[in-house]
TrEMBL record:
<keyword id="KW-0812">Transmembrane</keyword>
<protein>
    <submittedName>
        <fullName>Sulfatase</fullName>
    </submittedName>
</protein>
<keyword id="KW-1133">Transmembrane helix</keyword>
<feature type="transmembrane region" description="Helical">
    <location>
        <begin position="77"/>
        <end position="103"/>
    </location>
</feature>
<feature type="transmembrane region" description="Helical">
    <location>
        <begin position="133"/>
        <end position="159"/>
    </location>
</feature>
<keyword id="KW-0472">Membrane</keyword>
<feature type="transmembrane region" description="Helical">
    <location>
        <begin position="21"/>
        <end position="40"/>
    </location>
</feature>
<dbReference type="InterPro" id="IPR017850">
    <property type="entry name" value="Alkaline_phosphatase_core_sf"/>
</dbReference>
<feature type="transmembrane region" description="Helical">
    <location>
        <begin position="171"/>
        <end position="190"/>
    </location>
</feature>
<feature type="transmembrane region" description="Helical">
    <location>
        <begin position="52"/>
        <end position="70"/>
    </location>
</feature>
Length: 557
């Protein structure tokens, strides 16, 4: 049995000591990079660039100074607390980035937790139950890992500061002086100040948001208590539309960008001109304007509720309060008269929808009851053309039917616009199987989202498809008693809008009877299906009252 010689023993020790020191140094560097990166991480996707991380964070300098002067036990406790806080800030910033990417606003710490459930539903519908569970598990594990890593990194750096106290003091004084100099000189990097207070500003913004959100329920209650049409007798509602089929149709994500963005405007402009000519040839006329939606990127049900209720429904708390009230909705007003059968066509709903009763709908056709047996197209379960034809088949063909009022939600232009359906012969729609080859030939989500240009192109194609479907339906099945009101519910996601802050959506009223449009002659709307750039922009919650006043007597008379 051989034994190591003393020379070999000391060589082994030196070699492994160097390895240990290398590992220790590497770990310290990673800890510093993690903490510094966390403090400088922006909360908006459009700010995620290298320049964002070439700044001096005031919070890091103050934290380092504090850890240096505290006694051992207090220092360790503060380091742990700071590490947890930094980890939570990372998670909050990631939520903000996600919300800015889709809804173009930060995460609301009071009101937005329910939307995470909607995100899980979206994953289940697009990726299946396994994909949803995998995403949830991954998010939870990642969150725990972030908290553990930031806490460990902060504790390690705190120990390093004390171990090299003199150098640490000099470094903190140097960084503090540099930070102050940058403030005095107003130095900027890529349009952002080098002397950063990002996390302090972020916490301040969210604190103000929390106060506002907590007070929102009381404010909404005061607004909802005022209902100009609550006591209007049914016989005096909508008298100018008696005998008409009135169809309120929402085109998903049909926003101002589709009409005015240079990359999309030429094609959409051509579709709108062609469609205006087509409806005129069929005997119809149209007037168009703009509405400002309460949301952008998503939250369609909030926009629908705003349009129908005459209240600004900008969050889930307001939506729940609204749907548990007895507010007069636009659709509910038709039902109150007793002069219309009221139906809802909601192909994106695949489960019970109790809110339909609140909106005054006698019957609801959801995605399970339209008779569709073709493929889905991304999130959209039923192509718009089939949705409209199924509505016609189930309602227009009813024997001895009276006037109809319908709320119809068209979903083919819903995010992520992959793949997009195409028009087929209306006579060959059948049960929807005709869409199978179109679905197979369509582009995948991975292909579409490979570049912003590709996303915009497919979004534009989806709007073209929806508009062609709607106008084709009107040409084929509309008559002299048809009144079509159609609008977008919100702007698409920032990838399409280029982070435009505008929330405007187009709205059009199309009618065969000229007296219907004469009633809104004072609105200043544009002739045709394309609203002029300078046409009026109304808040979406103002439409209910304007519409009810235009087509019936004034409230209370």
């Amino acid at each position: 049995m051989s034994h190591p010689t003393p020379r070999r023993w000391f060589a082994w020790c030196r070699r492994h000591t160097r390895i240990g020191r290398g590992v220790s140094f590497g770990t310290t560097v990673l800890a510093a990079v993690l903490v510094l990166g966390a403090l400088l991480l922006p909360d908006r996707p459009d700010h995620l660039d290298p320049a964002a991380f070439v700044r001096l964070p005031a919070e890091g300098i103050v934290l380092a100074a504090l850890l240096l002067v505290l006694p051992y036990r207090a220092r360790r406790a503060v380091a742990v607390a700071a590490g947890v806080l930094i980890g939570l800030l990372i998670l909050l910033k990631c939520l903000d980035i996600g919300f800015y990417s889709v809804l173009f606003r930060p995460f609301d710490l009071v009101l937005d937790w329910g939307l995470l459930g909607n995100a899980a539903d979206y994953l289940r519908e697009t990726s299946g139950r396994a994909g949803e569970l995998a995403a949830i598990a991954g998010a939870v594990l990642l969150g725990v890992a972030v908290l553990v890593l930031t806490t460990g990194a902060t504790v390690r750096l705190a120990a390093l500061l004390v171990r090299h106290r003199t150098r640490s003091v000099h470094g903190i004084l140097l960084l503090g002086t540099a930070w102050g100099t940058c403030v005095v000189l107003g130095l900027h990097s890529a349009g952002r100040p080098v002397a950063a207070t990002l996390d302090a500003d972020l916490l301040g913004d969210h604190a103000r948001q929390v106060r506002t959100s907590l007070a929102d329920a009381r404010l909404f209650g005061q607004q909802a208590a005022v209902d100009a049409f609550a006591r209007t007798p049914p016989g005096r509602l909508l008298t100018a539309l008696r005998g008409k089929d009135v169809l309120f149709t929402f085109v998903e994500s049909y926003g101002r960008s589709a009409i005015e963005d240079p990359a999309m405007a030429p094609r959409i402009d051509a579709v709108l001109k062609e469609s205006t000519a087509a409806v005129r040839a069929a005997g119809f006329e149209a007037r168009s304007g703009w509405l400002r939606s309460p949301v952008t990127g998503g939250g369609s049900w909030l926009a629908h509720s705003t349009f129908l209720s005459g209240l600004w429904i900008s969050n889930q708390q307001r939506f729940r309060s609204l749907t548990s009230s007895d507010r007069t909705t636009l659709t509910g007003a038709f039902r109150r008269t007793g002069a219309w059968r009221t139906v809802g066509v909601v192909p994106g709903v695949l489960a019970a929808w109790p809110e339909g009763r609140f909106f005054g709908l006698d019957h609801i056709y959801d995605g399970r009851h339209l008779g569709y047996h073709g493929p889905d197209f991304g999130w959209s379960q039923v192509p718009d053309q089939f949705t409209l034809d199924a509505f016609r088949d189930k309602e227009f063909a009813r024997r001895g039917r009276g006037p109809l009022m319908a709320e119809i939600i068209l979903t083919s232009s819903h995010y992520p616009w992959a793949p997009v359906p195409r028009l087929v012969d209306w006579a060959k729609l059948g049960d929807g199987s005709v869409f199978q080859p179109i679905r197979r030939a369509g582009r995948s989500q991975e292909e579409v989202w490979s570049s912003p240009e590709s996303v915009r192109a497919e979004y534009r194609s989806s709007i073209e498809y929806s508009l062609h479907s709607l106008v084709g339906f009107l040409q084929r099945y509309g008559d002299r008693n048809t009144v079509l009101v159609f609008l977008g519910d919100h702007q698409p996601v920032p990838t399409v809008t280029g982070n435009s802050p505008r929330k405007d959506v187009p709205v059009s009223i199309v009618a065969y009877d000229p007296e219907v449009l004469d009633r809104i002659s004072g609105w200043g709307w544009t002739r045709g299906l394309k609203p002029a750039a300078d046409a009026p922009v109304w808040p979406m919650d103002s439409f209910r009252d304007r519409f009810l006043k235009a087509y019936g007597p004034r409230p209370g008379r």
